[in-house]
Amino acid sequence: MGEVWAASIRIWMVLLYRTGKTPEAISVVLTQTVVRGGADVPATAPSSFYLPQKGSECRSAGKEKPGIGPDSLSARHTVRTGFVDKIDRERHIREVTLPSVQPIIPTWRKEPFDGPEWLFEFKYDGFRGLFYLEQGRCRFISRNGNVMSRFEVLGDQVAAVLDVDEAIIDGEVIAVDETGRPQFYELLRVPRSASYVAFDILWLNGADLRSLPLRERRRRLRGILPKGSPIVSEALSVAGRGHELFAMIREHDLEGIVAKRLADPYDPRVRWLKIKNPDYSQKEGRGDLFNGPRQRTARTAG
């Protein structure tokens, strides 16, 4: 375990204890792959792009749990009950179609701040992705409303560890190195070690959660995420202490933080604030990477 990783663990322990988290909560956090950066770019997309498309069934959807021997009366009852439950779920799914979701667009803020009504999250340096799971089909939808086909395998893996019938989750697809540090450019090579960091849940098993406050949505998100999974984890965050978190971000050369009001619903009009590390080493050349030749020429000429 590298020196950066070890130092980060010590800072996490201090930070989480100061914010009132229990040792159990600290243990859960430290079993995840911590110290990963973030990026989210605003976009609006046609609603048709947000819905999972036919033919994109998750490979995990056809898996069945081990059965019980047919010689047992209780086993036959269990099988019959499970069959009825499956019919009810399928009937419900046919009647409900997942809504299209317009992501909240974080706005830029220069300086960090503190506030008891605010949640401060790591700004993960990866690709923003809405994860849709419906009728056994799953996929990531990008900030621009495009299907993120290069992360199809990761989508299957996420669906396999979530014990839900249908969901819409907001988060970031990331890749990290052996020390846990974010490596944005590794995502461009379709990494075998990609993972998903979830920071919001908008829909769960027929219930639209977007009108609920953020604190309640995060509670429900934690309820479905597997503990210690290398595939999907909850975004690391701290309530109230933006200055302290931002100082740690700068010390460890991470991208920044995002501030969100705990009482806010999930709505495009809601303001999330992003505060970026001005010295972040991986920001160099990022603009040229995503701007075409014409855009670069026009910018130079202007």
Which series of helices and strands comes N to C?
Answer: HHHHEEEEHEHEEHEEHEEHH
Provide the low-confidence segments as ranges. Answer: 1-56, 62-95, 292-302
User: Would you give the CATH topology?
Assistant: D-amino Acid Aminotransferase, Chain A, domain 1
**What is the rounded distance between the termini?**
48 Å
Fraction of residues in H or I helices: 25-40%
CATH superfamily: DNA ligase/mRNA capping enzyme
**Share of residues in strands:** 15-25%
Specify the CATH architecture. 2-Layer Sandwich
Structurally, the number of domains stands at 1
**What is the CATH top level name?**
Alpha Beta
Mean pLDDT: 74
Largest sheet: 6 strands, mixed
How does the helix and strand content classify structurally?
alpha+beta
Supply Rg.
21 Å
Shape estimate? globular
What is the total tally of β strands? 11
Contiguous helical run count? 10
Explain this structure to me?
The protein has helices at 3-18, 23-31, 47-50, 73-95, 152-161, 184-187, 214-224, 242-251, 286-290, 293-301; strands at residues 106-108, 118-122, 127-134, 137-142, 167-174, 195-204, 207-208, 232-234, 237-239, 256-261, 272-276. Strand 6 and strand 7 form a beta hairpin. Strands 3, 4, 5, 6, 7 and 8 form a six-stranded mixed sheet that branches. Strands 1-11-10-2-9 form a five-stranded mixed sheet, with helices on one face. With 302 residues, the chain is α+β, with helices and mostly antiparallel strands.
